[in-house]
Amino acid sequence: MPKFRPKISRYANLYFFIQNLSEWHFSNRKKHNKEWRNELAFSEKVELCLQEFKEIHKKYSFGDEYLGRPFFLYDNPWSMIKTIVGEDDYVKIKNIFSTLEPYFNTLYIKDEIILKKWAILISEPEFLEKASFINETLASFYGCSLYNEDCTIYLLLSTKEKNGGTSGTINDHSVTLELSQISLESKGQVLKVLWHELIHLYFRNNTFYPLLEKYTDNNLEAMGKIDELIASSLLPNGLLKENTITLVNESKTPETFNARIISDKIIFIQKLIYPYLKEKRTVDAKLVEKLCVIYGYNK
């Protein structure tokens, strides 16, 4: 059985708050920023700091020098930050964080209460037990063993309009979930968001990604897009539920599956993978070739 270890880190949340507002990456949550700006009324100095942080962060995006990693992994990240960015950018980042921290505190003092409640809920055996069918179905489809590892789940700020998660940026055994404004009644939805992230962290790696490497000539952009197409077709609002596989629903609204992917494309993918799920078949070369054509990648 896997073991989920929820963790609440003040530094991780402070970093998440600032980097998201800076919008240095296309994946930043625009709805978070809209709500936060409406509530906090930033000064001109704050706006200049965010713009400066955006430019700095672009230099330390992902990989070994990913700027965000120390804020998650260390109780005091600053010595590691200096190692990554050097003295000049280190001084700038410290100043940026000092300027933004009072605004962050306004949110965090309230939202930390909900995060602690979520940490208790996620730690309960029932939360894990409800995912047994999802785990088994994903393992069958992706051609791998059941997910049976320890996973640290960093709990982050969210807004009522938007929640989500990430995987693979911190290390191979961690994901993030944004849920500080999400009702505890939504634990089923949060469970499905978590297992969507575990697809990216674990399930895709054994059979699916090697096939994608072959049929895209290791085109990382194409691989990432196709991976997200499949994952969004399954979870959190796709074919896979806690205890069943649902029929393809062609009437879902545009943002039902993934705000950055049109629903028609995901529905088409669902029609391709539905027989695999129902018949407990594993993703194969034939399916991957079709997915590559749909994406527009012709080897």
How would you sum up this structure, described in words?
- This protein is an alpha/beta fold.
- It has helices at residues 10-22, 30-40, 44-57, 69-73, 78-123, 125-129, 132-142, 187-201, 208-215, 220-234, 263-278, 285-295, and strands spanning 3-7, 150-156, 164-167, 174-178.
- The protein has a 4-stranded mixed sheet with strand order 1-2-4-3, with helices on both faces.
- A hairpin with a 6-residue loop joins β3 and β4.
- α1 (10-22) packs across α3 and α9 (208-215) packs across α12 (285-295).
Q: Pick out the low-confidence regions.
A: none
- Largest beta-sheet details: 4 strands, mixed
Q: Over the alpha carbons, how many angstroms does the gyration radius reach?
A: 20 Å
Total DSSP E strands = 4
Q: Give the overall pLDDT as a whole number.
A: 92
**Tally of individual helices:** 12
> What is the string of SSEs from the N terminus onward?
EHHHHHHHEEEHHHHH
Q: Characterize the overall form.
A: globular
Cα end-to-end separation: 40 Å
**Structural class by sheet pairing and helices:** alpha/beta
Portion of residues in beta strands equals 5-15%
Helix content: 55-70%
**Strand order within the widest beta sheet:** 1-2-4-3
SSE layout and pairing:
Blueprint (H helix, E strand, L loop, with lengths): L2 E5 L2 H13 L7 H11 L3 H14 L11 H5 L4 H46 L1 H5 L2 H11 L7 E7 L7 E4 L6 E5 L8 H15 L6 H8 L4 H15 L28 H16 L6 H11 L4
Parallel strand pairs: 1-2, 2-4
Antiparallel strand pairs: 3-4
Keyword list:
about 300 residues, alpha/beta, about 55% helix, about 5% strand
